[in-house]
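Below is how a single chain appears once it has passed through the pipeline. First comes the sequence as given, then the structure the pipeline wrote out for it. We keep one example in the README because the format questions we get most often are answered faster by looking than by reading.
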Amino acid sequence: MKTISVLAPESRTIDLDTSLDIDGIYENTIHEYFMRLNNGEFMETAQLFAEQGCLNPPFEKSIVGKEAIARYLEKEAKGMNFCPERGEILTKVGVADPLEHSDRTQYHIQGKVKTNFFTVNVSWSIELNAIKEIMAVDVKLLASIDELLSFRS
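Resulting structure:
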């Protein structure tokens, strides 16, 4: 079991136990995002976003703002198990060289989402600002049209 320390909203540090091991990703905010989702802590998940942060789910309009994200997750993410497997830092947003200074960092993560009915390959693009708030999460399904159509009832 792996333990990470995170800064809670009240400016205190808390330790979270996690079995998440995302190969190539060592950013606490990203680990906490997936842990909170998997624990059904949707309000806490939404608090990881910047005030005008956005969630871009597949096939839907952007969800903007902490309260809207929490409502969306409460409605749509219940019963899902998010299984990030590996990832990388893509680039510092706005600069060509990832080692140059930028106030935003973008991560690309691949894994699976599991429900009682199906498992689908997914990629997440997560952008963090300088204070490690989530600016955006783009979720993409990595499935063929035939695979997606097989999910219909």
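The mean pLDDT is 85.

See the next section for the split statistics.
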